[in-house]
């Protein structure tokens, strides 16, 4: 079935955006391959150090990729279900292609993390990585590679193959090899690394009664009867080449360079879901409400929505509602007639008029006073404004995009936001996820910001250290993407030319980056992520000496160091309230917003002291 091309510009742009997500990821990895730094060739110890556990988030990371632990028996059950549902041949093809994809992704990550390694050294990381992932114990029998003439031959023994164990447990011994996923992994890893189609075959298998599994890998054109192997592999990138690649085809294809304004970077499920919603609503005239924590990129989403809409050739006017005092806000929104007040020596249009025919982005709309809210509601209802001091209604054709980091329904309940305005704004809500819910995007964002700020400041750091990558993958990011952007810019400046960016370059006034992850040492032991062993332990279980006793008690309780909370909840609440008031200069409303409470709740706790 052929899909008809869409005449809807916003939907077409959305489809194109989603198609390019994987290409974007590959481009960021290849174009900025030194983002993780080049600390020599990938030894088993270096590969182990790329592992990071974030149990509080349910994440495990390996070379910047999210992984999962799965019982061998559960894997065997999945495998058995596939065989029984699809038949032996189709199940073999499916598992081989899954293995191919896993191998290809590992090859891309290893190439990015050790860009100075040659093909031979980088290829040797594949078996070590497969061992680290718990699939097999690899013994090298023979390995010959000469990229200059296109020669490749590889032979291994696989001991303790998990896939063979599970196949034997389900079906016993047979006459055919059964390490399908692992063969696919080896083929995908070698093919993606070398840029030509390499096919592995299992010549001996424990499922056939042999003491170990033996595999042999060669370029596809050197095998006889290759059609059966190709039917099971996901090798479309290589099958388009008439000879399955040649000796000179060892470089990955160049992708289009993303321009500086195409900064919507991500492949995570949460990011893709929000992007799909954005491109679905963009072609319409509907009012959009963007919600999410501070720093998640609401303004960027608003600009992207405008560019994907039919209004993209008209003005996009933005206003941060929290940046203006109440006395000036109405004039900024609706404009001023000459003589309306002292100093108004000329008439001037407001933001609604300047955005006529285009889009008006109202950021932090929850900070508007009830009076200003009522006037915006009238504009949305009537489609016309009156300037301050004016008597004539001026029609405006404006699409409104509003944004807030507060829960507007709670603001309505607290009497700080008009319920009718909420209904007007909430036509099509899009929630933008915090960075901690889209951690798969962190390596891509790191690469993007590194390239951006290196060009801006004329500096060329070597990239990121492994421990810095692990620390950022497991960091909580209270400031979201804005915080990550600032950290990388600080690191670019601190590291300078020719130096690997590490945790010390991101430290602020001597305060280290506080990660909550657990990693592997070079010896394979678990340890806290970031810094030297002692420093990492301190990051994981201690607080800065200047922290208030009540909050230190709470942290000790949450970290598991103390089984009993040594401070009452009332004391903790009161201390949090005082901290918020200190940071906001005594502003009760701002302190309440900071803590996710109402002004009345803050006042009540202050009176109860």
UniProtKB/TrEMBL annotation:
Gene3D superfamilies: 1.10.8.60, Homeodomain-like, P-loop containing nucleotide triphosphate hydrolases, Trafficking protein particle complex subunit 3. Keywords: ATP-binding, DNA-binding, Nucleotide-binding, Transcription, Transcription regulation. It comes from the Bacteria. Residues 264-493 form the Sigma-54 factor interaction domain. The keyword Magnesium does not apply. Pfam families: AAA_lid_14, HTH_8, Sigma54_activat, V4R, XylR_N. PROSITE patterns: SIGMA54_INTERACT_1, SIGMA54_INTERACT_3, SIGMA54_INTERACT_4. The keyword Transcription applies. This is Sigma 54-interacting transcriptional regulator. It comes from Metapseudomonas resinovorans. The lineage of its organism: Bacteria, Pseudomonadati, Pseudomonadota, Gammaproteobacteria, Pseudomonadales.
